[in-house]
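Work Package 4 report. The design task specified in the project plan requires that, given a folded chain encoded as structure tokens, an amino acid be chosen for each position. We show below one input record used in the internal validation round.
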């Protein structure tokens, strides 16, 4: 399919287009024009768009359909679908669209990304034998309030098998008309532009453009403002409990903020960093109980599938207990996010950051490149020293501490991503991530096992579970113990890979500007 767009909403130009086509083809309406309402759907972090997929819910003549197209705007799948959002992909009716997007969307809910109302005309282009040799779809689209914009008509020429030359002729006619051009924007991009937005306008990653020569204070302020934006933009999704990733992204932004205050906060003026350290610790502690329960519930299908002595059904009272507990913890979380303290923390923090950013004069201290190299070198040295001292006899706390130091190194690398050579950066992050995965498996298994044992004790005391459930929970705890021992056994190899010659060379390249 090839799409064209008029340069402006102009009925006279559209009539000219149809007249020019009639000089080459006979043109026949294919049914009555349809009033169509479109809702484009994606996850909050644009997973479908980033994968080259576009999902629409199209309502016309009382019926609703989900339509999935690829990067070339060709339809990949369609199926009947509901018009109620948000909705998890796995909760959609069975069909080819759900099959195609479930793995891409994952645990994120589908949300409306844009809406438009259209009058759609489908025309058949006929040859001298009155055979349909191509089709033309005329889409006159408007964006509802608050944008309230009428968009230029979009024209799509589709081929008929065996008559591809006719479709090419139709395209040449369109391309020869002044005011008509191939569409550079998809319909979704055009709708978003009319509404003052752009696709992929959110990412949970650190996404700042720093300059090597900018003041280190300005660089840190820029990083912290972007993390504050991430916290605030996720609050509504957490309060509405749309999907679990809103809380995850909010927590990661809080952790990055706390790490930035610890690792590079000393370049900020005055007592700014010490003042806000306890406030962000409070926010991190506030979000922990619900996130811990989310992790349990999300891992439930995999844990249940791994049972040997017990059956998945034996764990249902445990799952129900976690779900009830989550309801209570979420109430506490929501009260905290709606509290005056939270509003004060975020409001005062933004005011302080903007004040530093907009302060006149050149901030003293290192430049961004020097700050990046120096703090990365320092964090890397901590990881090497601690990791090299760990032996098979070291206590579990040593690995837990190393995991924290690895997180700090990961964060300081991420903060200054835009200053690094992309290829070297990706390789260094890959080395670090493989070590972090091992340490994460070790710690998460231990923490989860301890939580399951503690929850089993609570359920036993409350007579909230039959014996079969408690036995199944015991099997889960045993499996987690096996996973932890396996991760411990893999640690030496993973650390040797991270701290080896190639890894050291990569890190040396990233810290070349650091003072010795």
């Amino acid at each position: 399919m090839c799409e064209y767009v008029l340069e402006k909403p102009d009925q006279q130009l559209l009539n000219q287009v149809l007249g020019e086509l009639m000089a080459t083809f006979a043109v026949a309406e294919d049914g009555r024009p349809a009033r169509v309402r479109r809702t484009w759907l994606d996850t909050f972090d644009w997973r479908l768009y980033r994968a080259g997929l576009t999902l629409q819910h199209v309502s016309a003549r009382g019926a609703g359909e989900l339509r999935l197209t690829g990067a070339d705007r060709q339809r990949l799948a369609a199926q009947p679908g509901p018009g109620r959002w948000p909705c998890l992909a796995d909760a959609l009716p069975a069909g080819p669209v759900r099959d195609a997007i479930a793995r891409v969307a994952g645990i994120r809910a589908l949300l409306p990304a844009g809406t438009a109302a259209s009058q759609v005309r489908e025309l058949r282009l006929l040859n001298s034998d009155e055979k349909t040799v191509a089709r033309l779809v005329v889409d006159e689209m408007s964006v509802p309030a608050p944008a309230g914009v009428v968009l230029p008509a979009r024209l799509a020429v589709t081929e008929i098998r065996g008559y591809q030359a006719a479709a090419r002729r139709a395209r040449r006619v369109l391309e020869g008309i002044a005011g008509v051009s191939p569409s550079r924007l998809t319909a979704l991009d055009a709708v978003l532009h009319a509404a003052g937005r752009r696709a992929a306008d959110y990412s949970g990653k650190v996404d700042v453009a720093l300059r090597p020569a900018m003041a280190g204070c300005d660089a840190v302020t820029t990083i912290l403002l972007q993390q504050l934006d991430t916290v605030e933009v996720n609050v509504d999704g957490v309060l509405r409990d749309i999907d679990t990733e809103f809380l995850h992204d909010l927590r990661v932004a809080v952790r990055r903020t706390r790490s930035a205050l610890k690792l590079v906060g000393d370049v900020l003026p005055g007592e700014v960093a010490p003042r806000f350290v306890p406030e962000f610790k409070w926010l991190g502690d506030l979000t922990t109980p619900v996130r811990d329960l989310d992790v349990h519930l999300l891992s439930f299908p995999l844990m249940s599938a791994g049972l040997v002595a017990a059956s998945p059904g034996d764990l249902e009272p445990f799952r129900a207990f976690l779900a009830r507990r989550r309801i209570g913890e979420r109430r506490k979380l929501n009260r905290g996010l709606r509290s005056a303290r939270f509003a004060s923390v975020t409001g005062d923090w933004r005011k302080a950051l903007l004040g530093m950013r907009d302060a006149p004069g050149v901030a003293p201290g290192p430049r961004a490149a020097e700050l990046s190299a120096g703090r990365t070198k320092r964090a890397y040295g901590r990881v090497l020293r601690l990791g090299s001292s760990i032996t098979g006899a070291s206590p579990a706390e040593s690995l837990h501490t190393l995991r924290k130091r690895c997180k700090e190194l990961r964060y300081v690398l991420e903060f200054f991503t835009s200053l690094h050579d992309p290829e070297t950066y990706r390789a260094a992050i890959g080395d670090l991530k493989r070590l972090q995965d091992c340490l994460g498996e070790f710690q998460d298994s231990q923490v989860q096992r301890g939580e399951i044992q503690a929850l089993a004790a609570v359920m036993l005391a409350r007579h909230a579970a039959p014996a079969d459930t408690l036995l199944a929970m015991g099997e889960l705890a045993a499996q987690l113990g096996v996973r932890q021992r396996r991760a411990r056994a893999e640690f030496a190899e993973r650390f040797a890979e991270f701290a080896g010659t190639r890894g050291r060379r990569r890190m040396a390249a990233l810290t070349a500007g650091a003072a010795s």
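The chain has a mean pLDDT of 92. Validation will be extended to a larger panel in the next phase.
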